[in-house]
From TrEMBL:
SUPFAM superfamilies hit by this protein: SET domain (SSF82199)
Domain of life of the source: Eukaryota
Entry protein name: SET domain-containing protein
Gene3D superfamilies, alphabetized: SET domain (2.170.270.10)
InterPro entries the UniProt entry points to: SET_dom, SET_dom_sf
Length: 263
């Protein structure tokens, strides 16, 4: 009888681990790992030897390994389609997002630097030019588009599976499908993994007005848009997308704030 996986010898497990890590050593977009002083050290995916017994492949079920946000994620075969390859440039985002340096994203100049909330709250996004929202914009969502909220898109239940494997990840996940059920296109809600370190997602650095002292006023918000982003960005890549929209005039050197529960 074949022994159950939990009695495999350490040597066999180590050999499997080595083979797998050679085959799938490259994570998605880790190019600016070096310049992230405000971020916690990224927890490395444990080697197979360190993993709990429950995460080892079950008997008779083919294991598929796919690239995760950084490092590897493992899933059984039926979940192998969860990862969409992500290239920030396709959506007009930068493949590397420097700090303290002006960048141009979607035709406007921005800088990512320490937030006005204070160093312990990390970075924030600042405008480097005025962005005028006309009083005549009757609906706040008619304001100018700033940039997309970009990153690989997962089904909610698959994202939850990834998180159970990586409980220490600081996540920047944005729910795409929170709008009314009558207009839902997907039965399973989708999530954008907007980690700015790995996806060039500048929107991931926008801080919340929640609990701020003195009170900050939101000057932008993220919205769901059905259909692909405007040309020339992500035309064929995206079925739907999320955008950050200015909701009131933003002056050069203003930090962007929106309202979300960051706790
Ligand atoms: C989407 S990130 C924003 C970018 C973040 N400052 C960074 O450097 O990664 C959300 C995180 O920023 C911090 N944050 C955002 N809004 C905040 C607020 N109003 N007060 C304190 N911390 C806040 C919290 O640590 C939160 O988990």
């Amino acid at each position: 009888m074949t022994p159950p996986p939990y009695v495999l010898s350490q040597g066999v497990l180590a050999a499997i681990g080595n083979a797998l890590s050679q085959a799938f050593a490259v994570g998605i977009g880790t190019s600016h790992e070096a310049s992230k002083p405000h971020h916690e050290a990224r927890p490395r995916v444990p080697s197979i030897r360190q993993r709990s017994k429950a995460q080892l492949p079950s008997e008779g079920h083919a294991r598929t390994i796919v690239e995760g946000r950084w490092g590897m994620c493992e899933f059984t075969g039926k979940c192998a389609n969860i990862i969409q390859s992500w290239n920030p440039v396709v959506l007009g985002l930068l493949d590397s997002l420097p700090y303290d340096e002006e960048v141009v994203v979607w035709g406007r100049r921005w800088i990512v630097k320490t937030s006005t909330l204070g160093e312990r709250h990390g970075y924030g996004v600042y405008a480097c030019e005025d962005i005028i929202v006309e009083d005549s914009a009757s609906c706040r969502r008619e304001g100018p588009t700033l940039f997309p909220y970009g990153g690989p898109i997962y089904k909610r239940r698959h994202w939850n599976m990834i998180l159970t494997q990586h409980p220490k990840w600081k996540t920047f996940a944005l729910e795409m499908d929170t709008f009314a059920s009558s207009t839902r296109r997907h039965s399973d809600g989708r999530v954008i993994d907007g980690d700015p370190i790995h996806s060039g997602n500048i929107a991931g650095f926008i801080n919340s007005t929640m609990g701020t002292q003195p009170k900050r006023r939101a000057n932008c918000e993220w919205v769901f848009v059905e259909g692909p982003p405007p040309a020339p960005y992500g035309q064929t890549y995206h079925e739907d997308h999320c955008l950050v929209i200015a909701t009131r005039t933003i002056r050069s050197r203003d930090e962007l704030f929106t309202h979300y529960d960051w706790n």
